[in-house]
Specification:
Blueprint (H helix, E strand, L loop, with lengths): L2 H36 L6 H42 L2 H24 L2 H20 L2 E4 L13 E6 L10 E6 L1 E4 L2 E4 L2 E5 L1
Length: 194
Amino acid sequence: MSEKERNEENISEEESIKDQVEEILDEAIEEADSKEEQQETETSESEKEQLKADLEKEKDKFLRLFAEFENYKRRTSKERVEMFKTASQDVMVSMLPVLDDFDRALNEIAKAKDKNLLKGVELIYNKFRETLRSKGLELMEVKEGDAFDADLHEAITQIPAPSDKLKGKIVDVVEKGYKLGDRIIRYPKVVTGK
């Protein structure tokens, strides 16, 4: 059952409970009114007003408590969804060095010019990368010439810029960066030009 279906089911259950509670309270008010009519000769007008006020006060108290409970359920549901999104973060972080090793292996195998070996390793690498992508892992696109942003990149060193266009910009990407959903789990390590 998907999260959406569970949420819709919870909402319909909550509406049903709320309707039942309102019916019970309305019946209690009507019952109190009918009892008041029977006892009208016995009780004074001020006592009736006091009973109505007390009943309304209890109804208001109950509705506030019910609303507070609804807010609590919504908040915990949202927190649970967030927890599931980031629960796999530790596993993803431990798999990143394996992705890096695959990149290095593909570069070395390409130099050896063994087409069958290269094709086999590429198939495994693509399947591994797609499996991680399906679980929410995204590669951060960083290339030479991009502006350096300390919030998104980790500068490991500065070198003299090979051209004036690369001053203060990224000259080389040493290690790729990855995101899991909207959260950066590994910042790209870059070399900047000065």
